[in-house]
Amino acid sequence: MKPELQRAIIDRLLARVGQPVTCGEDARVAVSAYTSQARFEAERAMFRRTPIAIAHASEIASAGAFVTRDVADMPVLLVRGEDGVRAFVNVCRHRGTRLVDAPCGTAKAFACRYHAWTYDLGGRLGHVPHRETFPTIDTASRGLVPLPCEVRHGIVWTVLDPNAAIDVGAHLGEEIDADLASFALDDHVRLENVRETRACNWKLVIEAFLEGYHAKYLHNKTIARFFVDGVVVFDRFGQHVRSAGGRRELLKWSGGTIREAATMFYFVFPNTILVLHPDWISHITMFPETASTSTYVHTMLVPRAASNDPARWRETWNLIEGAVFQKEDLVVADSIQASFGAGIEREFAIGGLELPIRHFHDAIENAIDRT
Questions:
Q1: Are 43 and 296 in contact (CB under 8 A)?
Q2: Same domain membership, residue 201 and residue 350
Q3: Which residues of the chain have pLDDT under 70?
């Protein structure tokens, strides 16, 4: 991030210290956005047209390394071959069996467990048992179905439509693209990772990272002490949001980088959160499963130069993932989803400190309208 931009954000934060919180008008969000099956299906269609951050490139650092994800009913296989990273539909071209069940690993080739049709790392069909019983099959046209794929800022992105094009730079826009480049995500590596199903709509977890209103209260026994209550600024860039929350160090700031004075949060549409802690980065992605369940993935990214000392990072990972996210943010998201059955509210009130949530919903609704 350019020094003048860092200074401008810090000045905006400093201007809020000790002042009444004024963030504009309040807003509303309909509860049906989290419960409606029709809305869920519209969002699923939206996911299929939008560049999605699937994993960090360091998770598939060597030839044969792979990860799998399920996004909007599309099973995705990411694999690094000898000539780069590819994305495929994770389905055997014989009878439609899911090809790879493991969430991650390494392989020299991928053999279907059903009839052992085997594909190389480039997705080419290389072996068909009893090939002579398929006299009309053209094996060259029966490779794995490729998906558009791009590695940018150390993150592997894909579009879930085999016939689509992908341009992550255009998706991010000039401002967010420049910011992410400045943080050198491509010079970070994965050190820790958790992937699990949560009993909540995917948007509820995203929203926890779009506002700092709750930090003083929900996180009062964990990380609230590190932040200045109500001292936040945010900017909207198209579908994306950049937020900054003032840390206690802001009150005595006399120069340095913005990460010494504030924690930066980036929401990258539609389902990615990046939290820039002082010396590492949380990469969080939410993948919808149903209207009321989702897959949560949190990856700890640390600078490559410091990655050979995992013990150094374990304490902070245990605090942020183990105590803050798991026992506070995620628990509340599940709790909100469970409360919908009571039918008490038809809409939620969104205060001035929570306006990025309204921006988030506006971006989803606009993307759905373009379907």
A1: no
A2: yes
A3: 22-24, 371
HSE-up (13 A, CA, CB side) for residue 138: 2
> What is the domain-level CATH number for residue 260?
3.90.380.10
Q: What is the CATH number of the domain that holds 89?
A: 2.102.10.10
Residue with tokens 């640390």: 302
Contacts 24+ apart (CB under 8 A), 326-332: 328/218, 328/219, 328/222, 329/205, 329/208, 329/209, 329/218, 330/198, 330/200, 330/205, 330/296, 332/208, 332/214, 332/218
Number of domains in the chain: 2
Asked if residue 164 is part of any domain, the answer here is: no
283 closest CA partner among 292, 210, 296, 177:
296
* The last residue of a domain, from among 124, 158, 192: 158
Query: What is d(CA 205, CA 31) in angstroms, rounded to the nearest whole number?
Result: 15
- Residue 17, classed as helix, strand or coil, is coil
The answer on 39 and 56 residing in a single domain is no
User: Could you tell me if 246 and 190 lie in one domain?
Assistant: yes
What's this model's pTM, rounded to 2 decimal places?
A: 0.95
DSSP state of 353: G
pLDDT at residue 287, rounded to an integer: 96
Q: Determine the Cα–Cα distance for residues 320 and 43; give it in Å rounded to an integer.
A: 29
18: amino acid identity, one letter: G
**Does one domain contain both 132 and 110?**
yes
189-243 per-position pLDDT tens digit: 999 999 999 999 999 999 999 999 999 999 999 999 999 999 999 999 999 999 9
DSSP-derived 3-state class of residue 263: strand
**Are 35 and 291 in contact, with CB atoms under 8 Å apart?**
yes
> Can you give the pLDDT at residue 24?
67
What's at 169, amino acid-wise? G
